[in-house]
Amino acid sequence: MSKYTIDPTRPLNIPYRNRYTGTRILRRFPEGVEEKPYTLFQVKPLGPLIGAEIVGVDLRDSITSEVKEELNRALLEWKVIFFRDQKISSEQLVAFARLWGELEKHPFLPEGNSPEIVRFAKDKNSKGFENIWHNDVTFRLTPARAAILRVIEVPELGGDTLWADTAAAYDNLPEEIKERIDGLTAIHDFTHVFGHSLTPDELAFWQAEFPIAEHPVVIKHPVTGRKTLFVNPDFTARIVGLDLEESENLLQYLFQQVHIPEYQVRFKWEANSIAFWDNFATQHYAVADYYPNRRLGERVAIVGERPSN
Predict the structure, then answer these.
(1) What Gene3D superfamilies does this protein's entry cite (predicted)?
(2) Predicted confidence (pLDDT) per residue in 266-298, tens digit
(3) Which of 28, 106, 134, 188 is catalytic?
(4) Residue 31's CB: how many other CB atoms inside 10 A?
Protein backbone atom coordinates (compact mmCIF):
# COMPACT_ATOMS: atom_id res chain seq x y z
CA MET A 1 0.00 0.00 0.00
CA SER A 2 1.37 3.42 -0.93
CA LYS A 3 2.04 5.74 1.99
CA TYR A 4 -0.27 8.24 0.27
CA THR A 5 -3.23 5.85 0.16
CA ILE A 6 -5.95 6.16 2.83
CA ASP A 7 -6.45 2.91 4.71
CA PRO A 8 -10.25 2.45 4.97
CA THR A 9 -9.84 0.31 8.10
CA ARG A 10 -8.37 3.21 10.08
CA PRO A 11 -10.82 5.56 11.81
CA LEU A 12 -10.84 9.16 10.63
CA ASN A 13 -13.23 10.56 13.24
CA ILE A 14 -11.28 11.14 16.43
CA PRO A 15 -13.49 12.19 19.37
CA TYR A 16 -13.21 15.88 20.30
CA ARG A 17 -10.40 16.65 17.86
CA ASN A 18 -10.82 19.43 15.33
CA ARG A 19 -8.58 21.61 13.19
CA TYR A 20 -9.51 25.24 13.70
CA THR A 21 -9.40 27.27 10.48
CA GLY A 22 -11.55 30.32 11.20
CA THR A 23 -11.06 33.69 12.86
CA ARG A 24 -11.31 33.43 16.62
CA ILE A 25 -13.91 35.42 18.53
CA LEU A 26 -11.99 37.74 20.85
CA ARG A 27 -14.30 40.07 22.73
CA ARG A 28 -13.60 41.68 26.07
CA PHE A 29 -17.20 42.66 26.78
CA PRO A 30 -20.48 40.80 27.00
CA GLU A 31 -22.83 41.52 24.13
CA GLY A 32 -24.49 44.91 24.46
CA VAL A 33 -21.80 46.43 26.71
CA GLU A 34 -19.89 49.36 25.22
CA GLU A 35 -16.37 50.51 26.03
CA LYS A 36 -16.15 53.50 28.38
CA PRO A 37 -13.11 55.65 29.21
CA TYR A 38 -11.32 55.52 32.55
CA THR A 39 -11.01 58.92 34.20
CA LEU A 40 -9.20 58.27 37.51
CA PHE A 41 -6.17 56.31 36.27
CA GLN A 42 -4.57 55.03 33.08
CA VAL A 43 -5.25 51.55 31.73
CA LYS A 44 -2.45 50.07 29.57
CA PRO A 45 -3.61 46.93 27.75
CA LEU A 46 -1.11 44.08 27.48
CA GLY A 47 -3.06 42.53 24.62
CA PRO A 48 -6.35 42.90 22.76
CA LEU A 49 -8.38 40.55 24.97
CA ILE A 50 -7.05 40.01 28.48
CA GLY A 51 -4.70 41.75 30.89
CA ALA A 52 -3.97 45.43 31.52
CA GLU A 53 -1.66 47.46 33.75
CA ILE A 54 -3.14 50.13 35.99
CA VAL A 55 -1.05 53.31 36.13
CA GLY A 56 -1.71 56.13 38.59
CA VAL A 57 -3.00 54.20 41.62
CA ASP A 58 -0.84 53.93 44.75
CA LEU A 59 -2.16 51.12 46.96
CA ARG A 60 -0.53 52.71 50.02
CA ASP A 61 -3.15 55.44 49.77
CA SER A 62 -6.77 55.19 50.81
CA ILE A 63 -8.85 53.89 47.88
CA THR A 64 -11.95 56.00 47.37
CA SER A 65 -15.25 54.45 46.35
CA GLU A 66 -14.91 56.11 42.93
CA VAL A 67 -11.46 54.58 42.33
CA LYS A 68 -12.68 51.20 43.57
CA GLU A 69 -15.62 51.34 41.16
CA GLU A 70 -13.34 52.05 38.20
CA LEU A 71 -10.89 49.34 39.27
CA ASN A 72 -13.74 46.86 39.48
CA ARG A 73 -14.86 47.86 35.99
CA ALA A 74 -11.31 47.35 34.71
CA LEU A 75 -11.18 43.93 36.38
CA LEU A 76 -14.43 42.87 34.73
CA GLU A 77 -13.28 44.18 31.35
CA TRP A 78 -9.70 42.87 31.33
CA LYS A 79 -10.14 39.83 33.66
CA VAL A 80 -6.73 40.42 35.26
CA ILE A 81 -5.20 43.79 36.14
CA PHE A 82 -1.63 44.53 37.19
CA PHE A 83 0.06 47.14 39.36
CA ARG A 84 3.80 47.93 39.34
CA ASP A 85 6.04 49.43 42.05
CA GLN A 86 3.61 48.87 44.92
CA LYS A 87 5.76 48.87 48.08
CA ILE A 88 2.95 47.89 50.40
CA SER A 89 2.89 45.81 53.56
CA SER A 90 1.05 42.55 54.10
CA GLU A 91 -1.51 44.47 56.15
CA GLN A 92 -2.10 46.93 53.29
CA LEU A 93 -2.52 44.03 50.86
CA VAL A 94 -5.21 42.52 53.11
CA ALA A 95 -6.93 45.88 53.55
CA PHE A 96 -7.04 46.44 49.78
CA ALA A 97 -8.47 42.98 49.13
CA ARG A 98 -11.15 43.44 51.80
CA LEU A 99 -12.63 46.28 49.73
CA TRP A 100 -14.03 43.48 47.53
CA GLY A 101 -15.40 41.31 50.32
CA GLU A 102 -14.61 38.72 52.94
CA LEU A 103 -11.28 36.93 52.58
CA GLU A 104 -10.93 33.17 52.65
CA LYS A 105 -8.34 31.08 54.49
CA HIS A 106 -6.67 28.39 52.43
CA PRO A 107 -6.74 25.06 54.28
CA PHE A 108 -3.63 23.51 52.70
CA LEU A 109 -1.14 26.17 51.57
CA PRO A 110 1.42 27.81 53.89
CA GLU A 111 0.15 30.76 55.90
CA GLY A 112 1.80 34.19 55.75
CA ASN A 113 1.71 37.06 58.22
CA SER A 114 -2.02 36.60 58.79
CA PRO A 115 -4.46 33.70 58.32
CA GLU A 116 -5.82 35.25 55.10
CA ILE A 117 -2.41 35.33 53.41
CA VAL A 118 -0.89 32.41 51.53
CA ARG A 119 2.89 32.65 51.38
CA PHE A 120 4.66 31.36 48.28
CA ALA A 121 8.39 30.99 48.90
CA LYS A 122 9.94 29.05 46.03
CA ASP A 123 13.71 28.50 46.06
CA LYS A 124 16.38 25.79 45.85
CA ASN A 125 14.62 23.88 48.63
CA SER A 126 11.24 23.94 46.91
CA LYS A 127 11.04 23.03 43.23
CA GLY A 128 7.31 23.81 43.14
CA PHE A 129 4.34 22.06 41.58
CA GLU A 130 2.51 25.10 40.30
CA ASN A 131 2.88 24.60 36.55
CA ILE A 132 -0.65 23.53 35.65
CA TRP A 133 -3.60 25.57 34.41
CA HIS A 134 -6.27 26.04 37.07
CA ASN A 135 -8.91 28.17 38.75
CA ASP A 136 -8.27 28.56 42.46
CA VAL A 137 -10.04 26.34 45.02
CA THR A 138 -12.88 25.08 42.83
CA PHE A 139 -13.08 22.16 45.28
CA ARG A 140 -15.02 24.54 47.53
CA LEU A 141 -18.78 24.76 47.22
CA THR A 142 -18.18 28.52 46.95
CA PRO A 143 -14.86 29.00 45.10
CA ALA A 144 -12.89 32.24 45.41
CA ARG A 145 -14.44 35.07 43.42
CA ALA A 146 -11.08 36.76 42.82
CA ALA A 147 -7.49 36.67 44.04
CA ILE A 148 -4.62 39.11 44.48
CA LEU A 149 -0.95 38.11 44.35
CA ARG A 150 1.89 40.39 45.44
CA VAL A 151 5.36 39.27 44.35
CA ILE A 152 8.06 40.65 46.63
CA GLU A 153 11.21 38.97 45.29
CA VAL A 154 11.73 37.76 41.74
CA PRO A 155 14.38 35.67 40.00
CA GLU A 156 16.55 37.41 37.43
CA LEU A 157 14.97 35.29 34.71
CA GLY A 158 11.78 33.24 34.56
CA GLY A 159 8.88 32.93 36.97
CA ASP A 160 6.25 34.54 34.72
CA THR A 161 2.53 33.85 35.20
CA LEU A 162 -0.02 33.41 32.42
CA TRP A 163 -3.78 33.94 32.53
CA ALA A 164 -6.35 32.70 30.01
CA ASP A 165 -9.82 34.10 29.34
CA THR A 166 -12.25 31.21 29.86
CA ALA A 167 -15.18 33.12 28.33
CA ALA A 168 -13.21 33.33 25.07
CA ALA A 169 -12.43 29.63 25.43
CA TYR A 170 -16.17 28.95 25.59
CA ASP A 171 -17.07 31.39 22.79
CA ASN A 172 -14.85 29.56 20.32
CA LEU A 173 -16.00 26.02 20.99
CA PRO A 174 -17.73 24.26 18.09
CA GLU A 175 -21.49 24.51 18.35
CA GLU A 176 -21.87 20.76 18.76
CA ILE A 177 -19.55 20.85 21.80
CA LYS A 178 -21.47 23.77 23.31
CA GLU A 179 -24.70 21.80 22.90
CA ARG A 180 -23.00 18.77 24.45
CA ILE A 181 -21.76 20.52 27.60
CA ASP A 182 -24.40 23.15 28.36
CA GLY A 183 -26.33 21.84 31.35
CA LEU A 184 -23.70 19.29 32.38
CA THR A 185 -22.10 19.38 35.82
CA ALA A 186 -18.73 18.14 37.04
CA ILE A 187 -17.26 16.91 40.31
CA HIS A 188 -14.47 18.99 41.85
CA ASP A 189 -12.25 17.53 44.57
CA PHE A 190 -9.02 18.49 46.35
CA THR A 191 -7.93 14.92 47.15
CA HIS A 192 -5.62 14.21 44.21
CA VAL A 193 -3.92 17.62 44.61
CA PHE A 194 -3.46 18.05 48.36
CA GLY A 195 -4.39 14.61 49.68
CA HIS A 196 -0.98 13.05 49.01
CA SER A 197 0.60 15.12 51.81
CA LEU A 198 -2.03 14.18 54.42
CA THR A 199 -2.21 11.26 56.81
CA PRO A 200 -5.30 9.02 56.48
CA ASP A 201 -6.86 10.70 59.51
CA GLU A 202 -6.10 14.18 58.16
CA LEU A 203 -7.49 13.24 54.77
CA ALA A 204 -10.71 11.96 56.32
CA PHE A 205 -11.04 15.19 58.34
CA TRP A 206 -10.57 17.48 55.35
CA GLN A 207 -12.81 15.40 53.11
CA ALA A 208 -15.54 15.91 55.70
CA GLU A 209 -14.77 19.66 55.76
CA PHE A 210 -14.74 19.87 51.96
CA PRO A 211 -17.07 17.25 50.48
CA ILE A 212 -16.92 16.93 46.71
CA ALA A 213 -18.38 19.97 44.99
CA GLU A 214 -20.58 19.74 41.91
CA HIS A 215 -20.34 22.77 39.61
CA PRO A 216 -21.69 23.45 36.10
CA VAL A 217 -19.23 22.73 33.30
CA VAL A 218 -20.31 26.08 31.84
CA ILE A 219 -21.19 28.82 34.29
CA LYS A 220 -22.65 32.28 33.91
CA HIS A 221 -20.39 34.93 35.36
CA PRO A 222 -22.13 36.31 38.46
CA VAL A 223 -21.69 39.94 37.36
CA THR A 224 -21.41 40.03 33.57
CA GLY A 225 -23.61 37.03 32.83
CA ARG A 226 -21.17 35.72 30.21
CA LYS A 227 -20.88 31.98 29.70
CA THR A 228 -17.47 30.66 30.67
CA LEU A 229 -15.81 27.27 30.95
CA PHE A 230 -15.44 26.14 34.55
CA VAL A 231 -13.41 22.94 34.49
CA ASN A 232 -9.71 22.67 35.27
CA PRO A 233 -7.18 19.80 35.48
CA ASP A 234 -6.25 20.56 39.08
CA PHE A 235 -9.61 19.93 40.71
CA THR A 236 -12.17 18.68 38.16
CA ALA A 237 -12.39 14.92 38.55
CA ARG A 238 -15.22 13.84 36.23
CA ILE A 239 -18.40 14.92 34.49
CA VAL A 240 -21.60 13.73 36.11
CA GLY A 241 -23.73 11.34 34.06
CA LEU A 242 -21.03 10.23 31.61
CA ASP A 243 -19.07 7.03 31.75
CA LEU A 244 -15.46 7.48 32.87
CA GLU A 245 -13.91 7.21 29.41
CA GLU A 246 -16.33 9.66 27.81
CA SER A 247 -15.94 12.03 30.75
CA GLU A 248 -12.15 11.96 30.58
CA ASN A 249 -12.06 12.44 26.80
CA LEU A 250 -14.39 15.42 27.01
CA LEU A 251 -12.55 16.95 29.97
CA GLN A 252 -9.18 16.64 28.25
CA TYR A 253 -10.60 18.42 25.22
CA LEU A 254 -12.01 21.23 27.37
CA PHE A 255 -8.80 21.53 29.42
CA GLN A 256 -6.85 22.14 26.21
CA GLN A 257 -8.88 25.23 25.29
CA VAL A 258 -7.01 27.56 27.67
CA HIS A 259 -3.73 26.56 25.97
CA ILE A 260 -4.66 28.65 22.92
CA PRO A 261 -2.35 31.71 22.90
CA GLU A 262 -5.00 34.11 21.57
CA TYR A 263 -6.85 33.77 24.88
CA GLN A 264 -3.80 34.43 27.05
CA VAL A 265 -1.68 37.15 28.61
CA ARG A 266 1.80 36.55 30.02
CA PHE A 267 3.03 38.78 32.84
CA LYS A 268 6.69 39.29 33.67
CA TRP A 269 7.00 39.97 37.36
CA GLU A 270 9.12 42.69 38.89
CA ALA A 271 9.64 43.20 42.61
CA ASN A 272 6.55 44.76 44.22
CA SER A 273 4.24 43.90 41.32
CA ILE A 274 0.64 42.90 41.97
CA ALA A 275 -1.84 40.87 39.92
CA PHE A 276 -5.58 40.99 40.65
CA TRP A 277 -7.64 38.42 38.73
CA ASP A 278 -11.21 37.29 38.32
CA ASN A 279 -11.24 33.62 39.33
CA PHE A 280 -14.61 33.03 37.64
CA ALA A 281 -13.39 34.40 34.28
CA THR A 282 -9.82 33.10 34.05
CA GLN A 283 -7.44 30.27 34.65
CA HIS A 284 -3.77 30.86 35.41
CA TYR A 285 -0.46 29.06 35.09
CA ALA A 286 2.65 29.87 37.14
CA VAL A 287 5.73 29.02 35.11
CA ALA A 288 8.18 26.98 37.20
CA ASP A 289 11.33 27.70 35.17
CA TYR A 290 13.46 29.54 37.74
CA TYR A 291 14.69 26.72 40.00
CA PRO A 292 16.99 26.95 41.99
CA ASN A 293 16.46 30.73 42.13
CA ARG A 294 14.02 32.37 44.54
CA ARG A 295 10.58 33.88 44.08
CA LEU A 296 8.62 35.17 47.07
CA GLY A 297 4.98 36.20 47.01
CA GLU A 298 1.83 36.65 49.06
CA ARG A 299 -1.69 35.86 47.91
CA VAL A 300 -5.13 36.66 49.27
CA ALA A 301 -8.47 35.50 47.87
CA ILE A 302 -11.95 36.98 48.08
CA VAL A 303 -14.77 34.65 49.07
CA GLY A 304 -17.11 33.91 46.16
CA GLU A 305 -20.52 32.43 45.61
CA ARG A 306 -21.71 29.09 44.33
CA PRO A 307 -21.31 29.01 40.51
CA SER A 308 -24.52 28.70 38.50
CA ASN A 309 -25.54 28.27 34.90
Answers:
(1) Clavaminate synthase-like (3.60.130.10)
(2) 999 999 999 999 999 999 999 989 888 888 999
(3) 134
(4) 7
